[in-house]
Amino acid sequence: MTSETNNFTCDFCAEKSNSISITLPCGFIVCYSHLKTQNEIIICFICKNHYINIKQCFNMPRNKLKLQNATNYSLIEESDEEPNMSVDPFSGDFVPTNSAQHFYHEDPKYNSLRYSSFQLFDNENSHLYWLEISPTGNFVCASDNSVKIWDSNTGNLLKRLNGHMNRVFTLKVLANSEVASASADKTIKLWNEDTGENLKTLIGHQDWVNCLAEMSNGNLVSGSDDYSIKIWDLDGGHCIKTLNGHNYYVHDIKLTSDGELISSSADRTLKIWDLCTGQCKSTLIGHSNWLGRLTILNNGGIMSSSTDKTIKLWDKNSGKCVRTFEGHGEYISNIKELKNSDIISSSKDGYIKIWDINNASCLKTIKPFNDFITCLDIFSNEQFLTGCINRQLKLWTF
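and the corresponding structure tokens:
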């Protein structure tokens, strides 16, 4: 009998191959090499909607026949003992209880993690990009081309602040309770939450405005796709300083406790800025693709995320990468520090991961949604909030 190694196109790497093809339980066909070194239990790396037991997959009749006919493969025999199955309370999937602990590397301190879910009501085509809590307790959100305010108890839409001409991707509730919104229309707008009045429009960027930060003196900092960072005097409504140095889109900015600014960019770098002089003090290099969100840790460390699907921890003083966190299947949309110093991240792949900062191990993996997670907020020592692009929210309690 001839070996079944005919030409096919792998659904994972998209390469044409004449090696052994393996059919996954969901029907996708992949190269054998993508599976032969994996753990015993994995999440499907194509559809991400189910678990794959590698032994059971290899022993599916068609796969088993192909592998038996391959001269370089020793068949994995399936145990006669039925695996002990349980339901993952977060994804709803059935998983082997004797393997789930190994797969997730779960820490017992997160075993009691539970959630309550609710929906922000709006038309079915409305999207959620950013969420913050106002002093009144309402959800203030960047949604479509507007700033929208939802009742945090009922999920009802209370107010829509219109004025931007393109998508509003982020906003900031300022110390004086005003709301600053940043848009793809190249402007920043200041709003009165109570009245909905547009107080000021800041004009100066030449492309999308992606991120905002408020300085201790009340000035506002913004980063843009025009490669620049601008500092704004909100009283006068004008730009007082422009920081140039990045060679591509500026995706996030954060202020440190000692008054410096950290920026992340699609040019694959982080930069540390002296806000008094407007000069770049140092550049941190290590990611292999665009940088996205970043966070400043309580101990002064910097964490960055990237479309290379990794998170990196940096020492600000030396500019060196201390360690790299790997495990997400898509680019990371948010990273935050929990009160116990563990790190929590969200991704476009719909997963939340909690990490040990000391060794980069994944302590917990959760799938709150089947869609892009756009919002991640830490509420207290015992709660954090996740939000999905389709306006679904889940409030998690330890």
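(Above: one complete record from the training split.) The chain has a mean pLDDT of 86.
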